[in-house]
Amino acid sequence: MPLTPVLLVEDDPTDFRLIQRAFNKLSNGFQMFRLTNGDEAVEYLAGDGPYENRGAYPMPAILLLDLKLPRRSGFEVLEWLRRQVSGLNRLPVIILTSSRHSTDINRAYDLGANSYLVKPDTGAQLEELAAQFRTYWLRMNEFPSLRPEIAR
Amino acid sequence: MQTEILRTILLVEDESTDATLLLRGFEKAQVMNPVVHLTSGDEALGYLAGVREYGDRRKYPLPALILLDLKLPGMTGIQLLQWMRVQGEIRRIPVVVLTSDSNPDTIDAAYDLGANSYLVKPGNTADIARMVQAIQRYWVKLNEPPQLVMRAGQE
Question: A98, A107, A114: best mutation site toward chain B, by most B Cβ within 10 Å?
Fold first, then answer.
């Protein structure tokens, strides 16, 4: 079975290490790609520059998106994504952030986030989150088709 | 604060066999949240819009999660999604489509209309129980729901 590509956009190196460690404890079935800012996320999804090579940079089945990102924020990435008209707009986006503010939560849903997760405080909780994420999204959920041509 | 109040789950499902299996699955998974079960798209719209007795949000709170079948008598699940998208805060409520239809065009249409997730009903009881448990663990325990202002005559 081909591995499901998961794209993680997370700028904080400590958070990234913790998330990566929690996900690596799970048995395989997915492959995680990591980017560190919002502009890169848009370039990756649009297939610009090096990301044109979909062999090396496959279209993700799902996006794990932090909100506070350098250059373009997670909100802006989400807004851009939902504006696409060719199928890319359907990409499921899970917000993974430390913010619990209701204004951030509501704004994310208003912009079309599929789900909103708050980064837990402990490694054990993060492992639990990774396990539930994997069971639900990678084993049960049906993904939409994404056609990567972008209307600009 | 109302965060400690168990959030309501709205199940929109017209087939009584499926509904029974799902509700039993919730019991088995020890979901303590109140599950409101409605059997048509029109009734679900009435509930969400707060029509008539549903205007009493203490008795009929807005759900934190909607499990939506697509094939429904009257208004379909797709039409309900379409309606939800042009509402105020109701459009934020996470909708998990839960249907027997696995046609890729239907899946795409549901996501285009803002479905948060799409699940295909499994064929047997054990798998349904597993699915309900995963729904509970993910959507009820892990996911942060939108903050909805209770309104429509609840005070």
Answer: A114
